[in-house]
TrEMBL record:
This is LuxR C-terminal-related transcriptional regulator. Residues 45-72 form the HTH luxR-type domain. Transmembrane segments: none annotated. Coiled coil: none annotated. PROSITE patterns: HTH_LUXR_1. It comes from Chryseobacterium luquanense.
Amino acid sequence: MAKKKDPLFLTRFKEIYPDLHENLITYRPNLKTSELTLCAYLYFGFTSKEIANYTFRSIKTIDNNRHNLRKKLDLTSEIDLCVWLKKMADRQDSD
């Protein structure tokens, strides 16, 4: 679904990984659908190049989106975003 830019990708992701989605929304309620979708791609470990290919955007756009997402989540560049998302999926209590 992700590779085909299926419009139901995020919906299906939320069904399969409800804890991650809920924890992200609780942590930052102002996340946009596009940011949550980017989180889903990153959770699966896709590179910026792969995400750009699947979403028909430039790599630079995806890199900018990642940068803006990091700022919104208050993550420094030292923190691996994919690892952070995996930990966020396992959190029992959200900030």
